[in-house]
Amino acid sequence: MNREALLSDYTGEDHTAELERISDWLLVKGVAAREERAFAELYGRYSVAIYNYLVHMIYDPLVAEDLLQEIFFSIWKGAGRFRGQASVKTWIYRIAHHQTVSWLRRNRRTLDLKLIDFSTSEHDPEEIYDTSSSHEALRNALVQLSIDHREVLELSFFHGMSYAEIAKVLRCPIGTVKSRMSYAKRRIGSVLDQQDIPK
């Protein structure tokens, strides 16, 4: 079945997400067939987001660049094993998660945090994940979070994933995602409170 036939039933605006899902799936099939154009398109769609994820988790742009290439090499090699049991997005983030955790386990050391600026002054972890007036406090808060807790914040707030999607990426129950998120928010709030940042 060709691309046009697969997409023919999904032409309305209400099917945008489904169109993207099928389009991604077709690209992975192309990668499995060793089509370089399909690989280039898939890389174009996901490389920036995955790079940002890596930088936020590892805080080292050079390492992030290296891991990004390793991740997409894994995608190139493993595309033939993709069966569509999860979305392509989830599958790619799962590979990124695995590579990130493996790297962090091999390189246990203090990392310099590089945070992204936002223009909010609200004392809410969802909105104050980084603010220009509170960099140091947030560094202290984030550094005290485990990789598991920092990752749920990253995937939710910066990558727009639902708890169900995060659970698939991390291969854990959705209840675990919720409890990690709840703890991470409380922990950040507690550290900010200790440093007398006004609410």
In short:
With 199 residues, the protein is mainly alpha-helical.
Overall description:
This protein has two domains: about 15-110, Rna Polymerase Sigma Factor, Chain: A, CATH 1.10.1740.10; about 115-199, Winged helix-like DNA-binding domain superfamily/Winged helix DNA-binding domain (Arc Repressor Mutant, subunit A, Orthogonal Bundle), CATH 1.10.10. About 65% of the residues lie in helices and about 0% in strands. It has helices at about 5, 15-30, 35-60, 60-80, 90-105, 135-145, 145-160, 165-170, 175-195. Mean pLDDT is about 80; it is low at about 1-15 and about 110-135.
Listing every helix as H and every strand as E from the N terminus to the C terminus, the arrangement reads HHHHHHHHH
The class by helix and strand makeup works out as mainly alpha
The CATH architecture name of the largest domain reads Orthogonal Bundle
pLDDT < 50 runs, ≥5 residues = 1-14, 110-133
CATH structural fold name of the largest domain: Rna Polymerase Sigma Factor, Chain: A
How much of the sequence is in beta strands?
Answer: under 5%
Q: How far apart, in Å, are the first and last alpha carbons?
A: 57 Å
Overall pLDDT metric: 78
